[in-house]
Design goal:
The structure holds 2 protein chains of 2 kinds.
Chain A (H helix, E strand, L loop, with lengths): L9 E4 L18 E6 L21 H11 L2 E7 L4 E6 L1
Antiparallel strand pairs in A: 1-3, 3-4
Chain B lengths: L1 E4 L3 E6 L9 H10 L12 H4 L6 E7 L14 H11 L3 E6 L7 E7 L6 H4 L5 E10 L1 H4 L4 H24 L7 E5 L3 E2 L6 E5 L23 H5 L1 H12 L13 H6 L5 E6 L6 E6 L9 H13 L1 E11 L4 H7 L5 H16 L6 E11 L2 E10 L1
Antiparallel strand pairs in B: 1-2, 3-5, 4-5, 6-11, 6-12, 7-9, 8-10, 10-11, 12-14, 13-14
Helix pairs in contact in B: 6-8, 11-12
The chains are: A alpha+beta, B alpha+beta.
Chain lengths: 89, 375
Protein backbone atom coordinates (compact mmCIF):
# COMPACT_ATOMS: atom_id res chain seq x y z
CA UNK A 1 0.00 0.00 0.00
CA UNK A 2 1.34 3.39 -0.97
CA UNK A 3 0.11 6.51 0.82
CA UNK A 4 2.43 9.50 0.56
CA UNK A 5 0.30 11.95 2.50
CA UNK A 6 -2.92 12.44 4.41
CA UNK A 7 -5.95 12.63 2.17
CA UNK A 8 -4.16 11.06 -0.80
CA UNK A 9 -5.91 7.99 -2.18
CA UNK A 10 -4.25 4.74 -1.13
CA UNK A 11 -3.33 2.20 -3.79
CA UNK A 12 -3.03 -1.48 -2.96
CA UNK A 13 -1.95 -3.95 -5.66
CA UNK A 14 -2.61 -7.68 -5.39
CA UNK A 15 0.35 -8.98 -7.39
CA UNK A 16 -0.42 -12.65 -6.78
CA UNK A 17 -3.65 -12.31 -8.72
CA UNK A 18 -1.90 -10.98 -11.82
CA UNK A 19 0.81 -13.63 -12.28
CA UNK A 20 -1.08 -16.04 -14.51
CA UNK A 21 -3.44 -13.57 -16.13
CA UNK A 22 -3.98 -14.60 -19.75
CA UNK A 23 -6.48 -13.28 -22.24
CA UNK A 24 -4.95 -14.82 -25.35
CA UNK A 25 -8.20 -16.56 -26.27
CA UNK A 26 -11.28 -14.75 -27.46
CA UNK A 27 -12.75 -12.83 -24.57
CA UNK A 28 -16.21 -11.43 -23.89
CA UNK A 29 -15.57 -7.71 -23.60
CA UNK A 30 -19.14 -6.41 -23.20
CA UNK A 31 -19.83 -6.01 -19.52
CA UNK A 32 -22.72 -6.55 -17.20
CA UNK A 33 -23.34 -3.32 -15.32
CA UNK A 34 -25.10 -3.23 -11.97
CA UNK A 35 -25.71 -0.07 -9.98
CA UNK A 36 -27.39 -0.41 -6.60
CA UNK A 37 -28.34 2.67 -4.60
CA UNK A 38 -29.30 2.50 -0.92
CA UNK A 39 -29.87 6.24 -0.50
CA UNK A 40 -30.28 9.22 -2.85
CA UNK A 41 -26.95 10.72 -1.82
CA UNK A 42 -24.07 10.21 0.63
CA UNK A 43 -25.60 12.86 2.86
CA UNK A 44 -28.97 11.15 3.00
CA UNK A 45 -28.05 7.83 4.55
CA UNK A 46 -30.99 6.36 6.45
CA UNK A 47 -31.15 6.18 10.23
CA UNK A 48 -29.18 3.22 11.45
CA UNK A 49 -26.69 3.16 8.58
CA UNK A 50 -23.07 3.48 9.56
CA UNK A 51 -21.53 6.89 9.11
CA UNK A 52 -19.64 5.91 5.99
CA UNK A 53 -22.37 3.64 4.66
CA UNK A 54 -21.08 1.04 2.23
CA UNK A 55 -17.54 2.42 2.52
CA UNK A 56 -17.42 1.12 6.07
CA UNK A 57 -17.53 -2.45 4.73
CA UNK A 58 -14.12 -4.12 4.68
CA UNK A 59 -12.44 -5.19 1.47
CA UNK A 60 -12.41 -8.75 2.76
CA UNK A 61 -16.20 -8.73 3.03
CA UNK A 62 -16.55 -7.47 -0.53
CA UNK A 63 -14.11 -10.15 -1.66
CA UNK A 64 -16.57 -12.79 -0.48
CA UNK A 65 -19.28 -11.23 -2.61
CA UNK A 66 -16.92 -10.98 -5.57
CA UNK A 67 -16.13 -14.70 -5.25
CA UNK A 68 -19.77 -15.36 -6.15
CA UNK A 69 -19.32 -13.07 -9.16
CA UNK A 70 -16.13 -14.99 -10.08
CA UNK A 71 -13.91 -11.95 -9.83
CA UNK A 72 -10.56 -11.36 -8.17
CA UNK A 73 -9.36 -8.03 -6.86
CA UNK A 74 -6.23 -6.85 -8.68
CA UNK A 75 -5.87 -3.57 -6.84
CA UNK A 76 -7.81 -1.07 -4.80
CA UNK A 77 -7.71 2.67 -4.42
CA UNK A 78 -9.23 3.93 -1.19
CA UNK A 79 -10.09 7.59 -0.85
CA UNK A 80 -12.22 9.64 1.46
CA UNK A 81 -15.28 9.57 -0.77
CA UNK A 82 -15.08 6.38 -2.82
CA UNK A 83 -13.20 3.09 -2.95
CA UNK A 84 -12.31 1.81 -6.42
CA UNK A 85 -11.55 -1.83 -7.13
CA UNK A 86 -9.81 -3.05 -10.27
CA UNK A 87 -11.08 -6.59 -10.88
CA UNK A 88 -10.49 -9.52 -13.17
CA UNK A 89 -12.38 -12.72 -13.86
CA UNK B 1 -13.81 -5.27 -14.49
CA UNK B 2 -14.28 -2.65 -11.83
CA UNK B 3 -16.25 -1.81 -8.72
CA UNK B 4 -16.85 1.56 -7.11
CA UNK B 5 -18.09 1.72 -3.54
CA UNK B 6 -19.63 5.02 -2.45
CA UNK B 7 -21.27 5.55 0.94
CA UNK B 8 -24.72 5.35 -0.65
CA UNK B 9 -24.29 3.21 -3.75
CA UNK B 10 -22.22 0.53 -5.40
CA UNK B 11 -21.34 0.20 -9.08
CA UNK B 12 -20.14 -3.19 -10.30
CA UNK B 13 -19.14 -3.68 -13.92
CA UNK B 14 -17.79 -7.07 -14.93
CA UNK B 15 -16.88 -8.62 -18.27
CA UNK B 16 -16.08 -12.09 -19.53
CA UNK B 17 -18.24 -14.88 -18.14
CA UNK B 18 -18.54 -13.42 -14.66
CA UNK B 19 -21.74 -14.15 -12.80
CA UNK B 20 -22.50 -10.63 -11.63
CA UNK B 21 -26.14 -11.12 -10.61
CA UNK B 22 -25.20 -14.04 -8.35
CA UNK B 23 -23.50 -11.51 -6.09
CA UNK B 24 -26.57 -9.30 -5.71
CA UNK B 25 -28.22 -11.10 -2.80
CA UNK B 26 -24.92 -11.13 -0.89
CA UNK B 27 -24.56 -7.44 -1.65
CA UNK B 28 -27.90 -6.67 -0.05
CA UNK B 29 -27.02 -8.75 3.00
CA UNK B 30 -23.70 -6.97 3.34
CA UNK B 31 -25.43 -3.61 3.13
CA UNK B 32 -27.77 -4.60 5.95
CA UNK B 33 -25.42 -6.51 8.24
CA UNK B 34 -22.13 -4.64 7.74
CA UNK B 35 -23.23 -1.15 6.68
CA UNK B 36 -26.40 -0.87 8.75
CA UNK B 37 -28.84 -0.11 5.95
CA UNK B 38 -32.43 -0.96 6.91
CA UNK B 39 -33.45 -4.50 6.11
CA UNK B 40 -36.50 -5.21 4.02
CA UNK B 41 -39.92 -5.39 5.62
CA UNK B 42 -41.42 -8.40 7.36
CA UNK B 43 -41.02 -11.42 5.19
CA UNK B 44 -41.18 -15.08 5.86
CA UNK B 45 -38.01 -15.70 3.91
CA UNK B 46 -35.08 -15.49 6.32
CA UNK B 47 -32.72 -14.44 3.58
CA UNK B 48 -34.81 -11.39 2.77
CA UNK B 49 -35.11 -10.35 6.42
CA UNK B 50 -31.37 -9.69 6.53
CA UNK B 51 -31.17 -8.02 3.13
CA UNK B 52 -31.16 -4.24 2.81
CA UNK B 53 -33.88 -2.67 0.75
CA UNK B 54 -32.30 -0.76 -2.13
CA UNK B 55 -33.36 2.71 -3.15
CA UNK B 56 -32.76 2.08 -6.83
CA UNK B 57 -31.36 -0.75 -8.91
CA UNK B 58 -30.10 -0.39 -12.44
CA UNK B 59 -28.84 -3.28 -14.55
CA UNK B 60 -27.77 -3.18 -18.16
CA UNK B 61 -25.55 -4.86 -20.67
CA UNK B 62 -24.72 -4.84 -24.32
CA UNK B 63 -25.40 -7.88 -26.49
CA UNK B 64 -22.82 -10.55 -25.78
CA UNK B 65 -20.40 -11.52 -28.53
CA UNK B 66 -20.36 -15.13 -27.25
CA UNK B 67 -23.65 -15.60 -25.36
CA UNK B 68 -23.32 -19.39 -25.33
CA UNK B 69 -20.36 -19.06 -22.96
CA UNK B 70 -22.30 -17.23 -20.27
CA UNK B 71 -23.31 -18.91 -17.03
CA UNK B 72 -26.10 -18.80 -14.49
CA UNK B 73 -28.80 -16.20 -15.11
CA UNK B 74 -26.66 -14.53 -17.77
CA UNK B 75 -27.41 -17.13 -20.39
CA UNK B 76 -30.15 -14.89 -21.73
CA UNK B 77 -31.68 -11.47 -21.15
CA UNK B 78 -34.94 -13.21 -20.34
CA UNK B 79 -33.26 -15.16 -17.52
CA UNK B 80 -31.63 -12.00 -16.17
CA UNK B 81 -34.92 -10.12 -16.12
CA UNK B 82 -36.62 -13.03 -14.36
CA UNK B 83 -33.81 -13.17 -11.79
CA UNK B 84 -34.30 -9.51 -10.96
CA UNK B 85 -38.08 -9.74 -11.05
CA UNK B 86 -37.92 -12.55 -8.48
CA UNK B 87 -36.01 -10.23 -6.16
CA UNK B 88 -37.69 -6.90 -6.77
CA UNK B 89 -41.05 -5.50 -7.78
CA UNK B 90 -41.77 -2.50 -9.98
CA UNK B 91 -39.04 -3.07 -12.50
CA UNK B 92 -39.08 -2.19 -16.17
CA UNK B 93 -36.99 -3.78 -18.87
CA UNK B 94 -36.02 -2.16 -22.14
CA UNK B 95 -34.10 -3.07 -25.22
CA UNK B 96 -32.46 -0.36 -27.24
CA UNK B 97 -32.95 0.59 -29.94
CA UNK B 98 -35.77 -1.97 -29.98
CA UNK B 99 -36.55 -5.65 -29.47
CA UNK B 100 -36.16 -6.38 -33.18
CA UNK B 101 -32.51 -5.31 -33.27
CA UNK B 102 -31.36 -4.96 -29.67
CA UNK B 103 -27.91 -3.61 -29.00
CA UNK B 104 -28.22 -2.88 -25.34
CA UNK B 105 -30.60 -4.37 -22.84
CA UNK B 106 -31.51 -2.29 -19.85
CA UNK B 107 -33.49 -3.04 -16.75
CA UNK B 108 -34.28 -0.25 -14.36
CA UNK B 109 -35.98 -0.80 -11.04
CA UNK B 110 -37.26 2.10 -9.01
CA UNK B 111 -37.99 0.57 -5.66
CA UNK B 112 -40.76 2.39 -3.79
CA UNK B 113 -38.98 3.85 -0.83
CA UNK B 114 -41.39 6.38 0.57
CA UNK B 115 -39.60 9.30 -1.03
CA UNK B 116 -39.79 10.74 -4.49
CA UNK B 117 -36.89 9.36 -6.51
CA UNK B 118 -36.07 12.47 -8.50
CA UNK B 119 -36.36 14.91 -5.62
CA UNK B 120 -34.04 12.86 -3.48
CA UNK B 121 -31.06 13.21 -5.81
CA UNK B 122 -28.90 16.15 -4.86
CA UNK B 123 -27.33 18.17 -7.63
CA UNK B 124 -26.93 17.15 -11.26
CA UNK B 125 -26.51 13.44 -11.68
CA UNK B 126 -25.52 11.75 -14.90
CA UNK B 127 -23.69 8.73 -16.25
CA UNK B 128 -22.21 8.60 -19.72
CA UNK B 129 -21.34 5.24 -21.22
CA UNK B 130 -19.69 4.67 -24.60
CA UNK B 131 -19.56 1.08 -25.88
CA UNK B 132 -17.34 0.50 -28.90
CA UNK B 133 -16.78 -2.50 -31.17
CA UNK B 134 -14.73 -3.24 -34.28
CA UNK B 135 -11.84 -1.16 -33.03
CA UNK B 136 -9.38 0.08 -35.62
CA UNK B 137 -6.56 -2.52 -35.42
CA UNK B 138 -3.66 -0.05 -35.23
CA UNK B 139 -5.37 1.85 -32.42
CA UNK B 140 -6.18 -1.38 -30.60
CA UNK B 141 -2.50 -2.39 -30.79
CA UNK B 142 -1.74 0.30 -28.21
CA UNK B 143 -3.32 -1.97 -25.62
CA UNK B 144 -1.10 -4.97 -26.25
CA UNK B 145 1.61 -5.81 -23.74
CA UNK B 146 4.51 -5.68 -26.23
CA UNK B 147 3.39 -2.28 -27.45
CA UNK B 148 3.04 -1.02 -23.88
CA UNK B 149 6.52 -2.25 -22.97
CA UNK B 150 8.00 -0.54 -26.02
CA UNK B 151 6.20 2.67 -25.08
CA UNK B 152 7.43 2.41 -21.50
CA UNK B 153 11.01 1.82 -22.63
CA UNK B 154 10.81 4.78 -24.95
CA UNK B 155 9.42 7.00 -22.22
CA UNK B 156 11.98 5.75 -19.73
CA UNK B 157 14.83 6.27 -22.14
CA UNK B 158 13.68 9.80 -22.80
CA UNK B 159 13.37 10.53 -19.09
CA UNK B 160 16.78 9.01 -18.42
CA UNK B 161 18.33 11.00 -21.24
CA UNK B 162 16.90 14.21 -19.85
CA UNK B 163 18.20 13.35 -16.40
CA UNK B 164 21.62 12.56 -17.79
CA UNK B 165 21.71 15.88 -19.61
CA UNK B 166 20.82 17.69 -16.42
CA UNK B 167 23.57 15.82 -14.64
CA UNK B 168 26.04 16.72 -17.37
CA UNK B 169 25.00 20.33 -16.96
CA UNK B 170 25.95 20.09 -13.32
CA UNK B 171 22.41 20.13 -11.95
CA UNK B 172 22.74 16.55 -10.63
CA UNK B 173 19.48 15.22 -9.27
CA UNK B 174 17.71 11.98 -8.58
CA UNK B 175 15.10 11.53 -11.32
CA UNK B 176 11.64 10.47 -10.45
CA UNK B 177 8.93 9.30 -12.77
CA UNK B 178 5.45 10.41 -11.85
CA UNK B 179 2.61 8.27 -13.03
CA UNK B 180 -1.08 8.50 -12.55
CA UNK B 181 -3.06 5.39 -11.89
CA UNK B 182 -4.86 4.32 -15.02
CA UNK B 183 -7.97 2.22 -15.58
CA UNK B 184 -10.09 3.19 -12.61
CA UNK B 185 -9.62 6.51 -10.89
CA UNK B 186 -11.34 7.17 -7.61
CA UNK B 187 -12.41 10.53 -6.27
CA UNK B 188 -10.29 13.20 -7.90
CA UNK B 189 -9.21 12.60 -11.45
CA UNK B 190 -5.61 13.22 -10.35
CA UNK B 191 -4.18 10.30 -8.50
CA UNK B 192 -0.39 10.26 -8.46
CA UNK B 193 1.86 7.35 -7.77
CA UNK B 194 5.56 8.15 -7.62
CA UNK B 195 8.26 5.55 -7.80
CA UNK B 196 12.01 5.70 -8.13
CA UNK B 197 13.51 5.19 -11.55
CA UNK B 198 17.12 5.01 -10.46
CA UNK B 199 18.55 2.98 -7.61
CA UNK B 200 22.15 3.66 -6.58
CA UNK B 201 24.01 2.94 -3.41
CA UNK B 202 25.44 5.96 -1.66
CA UNK B 203 28.86 4.32 -1.58
CA UNK B 204 29.05 4.26 -5.36
CA UNK B 205 27.57 7.64 -6.07
CA UNK B 206 27.20 10.96 -4.40
CA UNK B 207 24.06 10.56 -2.30
CA UNK B 208 22.08 9.16 -5.19
CA UNK B 209 23.01 11.87 -7.65
CA UNK B 210 23.06 10.87 -11.30
CA UNK B 211 26.43 11.35 -12.92
CA UNK B 212 27.29 11.15 -16.63
CA UNK B 213 29.02 7.79 -16.13
CA UNK B 214 26.08 6.13 -14.40
CA UNK B 215 24.77 2.98 -16.01
CA UNK B 216 21.02 3.36 -16.36
CA UNK B 217 19.08 0.18 -15.48
CA UNK B 218 15.51 -0.32 -16.65
CA UNK B 219 13.47 -1.35 -13.55
CA UNK B 220 11.91 -4.73 -14.02
CA UNK B 221 8.66 -3.73 -12.35
CA UNK B 222 8.08 -1.17 -15.10
CA UNK B 223 8.30 -3.95 -17.70
CA UNK B 224 5.93 -6.40 -16.05
CA UNK B 225 3.69 -4.41 -13.70
CA UNK B 226 0.34 -4.17 -15.40
CA UNK B 227 -0.64 -1.08 -13.49
CA UNK B 228 2.50 0.83 -14.40
CA UNK B 229 2.23 -0.21 -18.05
CA UNK B 230 -1.43 0.71 -18.01
CA UNK B 231 -0.40 4.17 -16.88
CA UNK B 232 2.04 4.46 -19.77
CA UNK B 233 -0.63 3.37 -22.24
CA UNK B 234 -3.21 5.67 -20.72
CA UNK B 235 -0.90 8.63 -21.19
CA UNK B 236 0.31 7.58 -24.63
CA UNK B 237 -3.08 6.95 -26.21
CA UNK B 238 -4.73 10.04 -24.74
CA UNK B 239 -7.03 8.55 -22.12
CA UNK B 240 -5.32 10.59 -19.42
CA UNK B 241 -6.24 13.71 -21.39
CA UNK B 242 -9.98 13.04 -21.49
CA UNK B 243 -10.29 15.20 -18.40
CA UNK B 244 -7.23 17.46 -18.60
CA UNK B 245 -6.20 19.14 -15.39
CA UNK B 246 -6.09 22.42 -17.30
CA UNK B 247 -9.87 22.30 -17.66
CA UNK B 248 -11.07 20.09 -14.83
CA UNK B 249 -12.38 20.47 -12.31
CA UNK B 250 -14.63 23.14 -13.71
CA UNK B 251 -17.25 24.83 -11.56
CA UNK B 252 -19.83 22.15 -12.16
CA UNK B 253 -17.45 19.27 -11.64
CA UNK B 254 -16.28 20.78 -8.37
CA UNK B 255 -19.76 20.39 -7.03
CA UNK B 256 -19.60 16.66 -7.64
CA UNK B 257 -15.81 16.37 -7.33
CA UNK B 258 -15.50 13.87 -4.49
CA UNK B 259 -17.79 11.39 -6.20
CA UNK B 260 -16.67 11.48 -9.81
CA UNK B 261 -15.05 8.56 -11.59
CA UNK B 262 -14.32 7.22 -15.01
CA UNK B 263 -13.49 3.68 -15.98
CA UNK B 264 -12.21 2.15 -19.20
CA UNK B 265 -12.26 -1.53 -20.16
CA UNK B 266 -10.49 -2.71 -23.33
CA UNK B 267 -10.41 -6.05 -25.15
CA UNK B 268 -8.12 -5.26 -28.11
CA UNK B 269 -7.84 -8.62 -29.88
CA UNK B 270 -9.28 -8.44 -33.43
CA UNK B 271 -11.55 -11.45 -33.03
CA UNK B 272 -13.35 -9.77 -30.11
CA UNK B 273 -12.27 -6.14 -30.12
CA UNK B 274 -14.26 -4.03 -27.71
CA UNK B 275 -13.82 -1.02 -25.47
CA UNK B 276 -16.06 0.72 -23.00
CA UNK B 277 -15.82 4.10 -21.36
CA UNK B 278 -18.02 5.13 -18.46
CA UNK B 279 -18.04 8.28 -16.35
CA UNK B 280 -20.22 10.39 -14.12
CA UNK B 281 -18.26 13.59 -14.69
CA UNK B 282 -21.00 16.08 -15.55
CA UNK B 283 -21.01 17.69 -18.96
CA UNK B 284 -20.38 21.42 -18.97
CA UNK B 285 -23.33 23.72 -19.19
CA UNK B 286 -21.80 25.48 -22.16
CA UNK B 287 -23.16 22.57 -24.22
CA UNK B 288 -19.79 21.38 -25.45
CA UNK B 289 -18.17 19.01 -23.02
CA UNK B 290 -20.13 15.77 -23.35
CA UNK B 291 -19.74 15.72 -27.13
CA UNK B 292 -16.06 16.65 -26.71
CA UNK B 293 -15.55 13.68 -24.41
CA UNK B 294 -17.28 11.36 -26.86
CA UNK B 295 -15.19 12.62 -29.77
CA UNK B 296 -11.99 12.32 -27.74
CA UNK B 297 -12.68 8.75 -26.63
CA UNK B 298 -13.92 7.61 -30.03
CA UNK B 299 -10.81 9.06 -31.64
CA UNK B 300 -8.62 6.91 -29.38
CA UNK B 301 -10.26 3.64 -30.40
CA UNK B 302 -11.75 4.55 -33.81
CA UNK B 303 -14.50 1.91 -33.58
CA UNK B 304 -16.52 0.75 -36.54
CA UNK B 305 -19.65 1.09 -34.41
CA UNK B 306 -20.45 2.49 -31.03
CA UNK B 307 -23.34 3.40 -28.79
CA UNK B 308 -23.65 6.25 -26.34
CA UNK B 309 -25.96 6.02 -23.37
CA UNK B 310 -26.54 9.15 -21.32
CA UNK B 311 -28.44 8.54 -18.13
CA UNK B 312 -29.17 11.82 -16.39
CA UNK B 313 -31.49 13.39 -13.87
CA UNK B 314 -34.40 15.35 -15.30
CA UNK B 315 -33.05 18.55 -13.76
CA UNK B 316 -30.11 18.06 -16.08
CA UNK B 317 -31.34 16.62 -19.33
CA UNK B 318 -32.54 18.45 -22.43
CA UNK B 319 -35.67 16.38 -22.38
CA UNK B 320 -36.26 17.13 -18.72
CA UNK B 321 -35.68 20.83 -19.17
CA UNK B 322 -38.28 20.95 -21.94
CA UNK B 323 -40.83 20.32 -19.22
CA UNK B 324 -39.78 23.43 -17.31
CA UNK B 325 -40.70 25.58 -20.28
CA UNK B 326 -44.28 25.11 -19.27
CA UNK B 327 -43.61 27.70 -16.57
CA UNK B 328 -42.24 30.15 -19.18
CA UNK B 329 -39.32 30.85 -16.90
CA UNK B 330 -36.57 32.85 -18.60
CA UNK B 331 -33.88 30.94 -16.80
CA UNK B 332 -35.57 27.67 -17.65
CA UNK B 333 -35.62 28.63 -21.33
CA UNK B 334 -31.93 29.54 -21.19
CA UNK B 335 -30.88 26.30 -19.55
CA UNK B 336 -33.16 24.32 -21.83
CA UNK B 337 -31.45 26.00 -24.78
CA UNK B 338 -28.03 25.03 -23.50
CA UNK B 339 -29.21 21.49 -22.99
CA UNK B 340 -30.59 21.37 -26.53
CA UNK B 341 -27.26 22.61 -27.89
CA UNK B 342 -25.48 19.89 -25.98
CA UNK B 343 -27.93 17.32 -27.31
CA UNK B 344 -27.62 18.51 -30.91
CA UNK B 345 -23.81 18.35 -30.85
CA UNK B 346 -24.05 14.71 -29.89
CA UNK B 347 -26.00 14.10 -33.07
CA UNK B 348 -22.93 14.99 -35.12
CA UNK B 349 -19.81 13.05 -34.17
CA UNK B 350 -17.16 13.57 -36.91
CA UNK B 351 -16.66 10.52 -39.10
CA UNK B 352 -19.82 8.80 -37.94
CA UNK B 353 -23.48 8.64 -38.83
CA UNK B 354 -25.99 8.63 -36.00
CA UNK B 355 -28.25 5.69 -36.83
CA UNK B 356 -30.59 5.51 -33.86
CA UNK B 357 -31.75 7.70 -31.00
CA UNK B 358 -34.07 6.48 -28.28
CA UNK B 359 -35.28 8.30 -25.17
CA UNK B 360 -36.61 6.45 -22.14
CA UNK B 361 -38.49 8.39 -19.49
CA UNK B 362 -37.98 7.12 -15.94
CA UNK B 363 -39.00 8.63 -12.62
CA UNK B 364 -36.56 11.47 -12.11
CA UNK B 365 -34.24 10.35 -14.92
CA UNK B 366 -34.00 10.29 -18.67
CA UNK B 367 -32.03 7.67 -20.57
CA UNK B 368 -30.95 8.75 -24.04
CA UNK B 369 -29.46 6.07 -26.27
CA UNK B 370 -27.66 6.85 -29.51
CA UNK B 371 -26.05 4.42 -31.93
CA UNK B 372 -23.44 5.39 -34.51
CA UNK B 373 -21.73 3.71 -37.45
CA UNK B 374 -18.59 4.82 -39.24
CA UNK B 375 -19.32 6.66 -42.46
Amino acid sequence: TFSPSEGTPQLTINRDATIDLDSSNAFEGPEKLLEVWFAPSPKDLPIGAKENGLKSVSAETWTGMLDLVNCKVLSTIESEHVDAYLLSE
Amino acid sequence: SSMFVFPHKLILKTCGTTTLLLGLRRMLRIAAIHAGFPAQGCNSVEEVKTAAKPYRVFYSRKNFLFPEKQQGPHRSWKDEVKYLDDMFLNGSAYMTPDAEKPITETKVLNIPHGSVDGDGVQGPDETLEILMTDLEPNNARQFYLDHAVAAAESKYAKTALEARKRAENGLGELSRVNSSVSGTTAGSTNTDETFDVFSHTSSDHNGGLVTPDDEISFPEELCTEGHALGTVVSEGCGLSDVYPTSKYPDARTKQALPHIYFTVHVTPEPQCSYASFETNVPGCQTGRETADVIEHVVDIFKPGRFSVTLFESKTNSAEGRELTLLGNSASAMKTAGAARLRSSRMENIPGYRRVDRIVHDFDGYDLVFRYYERR
